[in-house]
Amino acid sequence: MSAAPPHRGRRFLRRHVHWLLLVSILLVWQCLCGLFDVSEFIFPSPWRIADQLWEHHATILAHAWRSFWVTMVGFGLSIVVGVLLGCLMGSSRLAYDAMYPLTTAFNALPKAAFVPVLVVWFGIGAGPAILTAFLISFFPIMVNIATGLATLEPELEDVLRVLGARRRDVLLKVGLPRAMPFFFGALKVSITLAFVGTTVSEMTAANEGIGYLLVSAGSSMQMGLAFAGLVVVGAMAMVMYELFAWLERRLTGWAHRGQSS
Question: Nearest Cα to 40, choosing from 226, 224, 213?
């Protein structure tokens, strides 16, 4: 029986290298905790975290579901607002020059500082978490859409104008499709930021959700449960990231030809 071609081995490694790295990190983590006899109240081992995940799975799932749908609502708002503002900035040089410095300054503000204000306006609950997820995640979408539209080659636009295309035709038929790789790149970044915003808000202004679970577990010195909550947040963000990466490969494969070799 002939050996497998070398390129198959490289392809397998490339597809699964992140899992190999994760397993290696967990093994080293577990060994260090056992070797130095680290207390679970200080730094729980992966085995202890897995045990807490199983023991409290019903509670964790309830809090995770709340954090997930809140994040998705805030993220959906960020897509709508980010795309609209990005199209405006990318299609108008005047709008770009006027809005970009202001939105950059706004993005530099710590979003955790908005949570007390949002609590005053909307009370304790889902409202502050949704808006925090929105505020922290719309900027990358807006900037990438604006960049994709603003960097359309002038020569290409001139040719389209000569052929009779109007400004709206250039935007809808050429500009937006060209900006799709930028858009999906922004989605992969923004979804992780949205989970950060939701968790931070829930730690301050909620009575349910993973953020609330982290505070409750930490105050009762259940560090294994707290780390289990962090694992769940990371898992949800990774799943959504992979979903957008899959959609990116399916819908913008033309922009990545030649990169799989």
Answer: 224
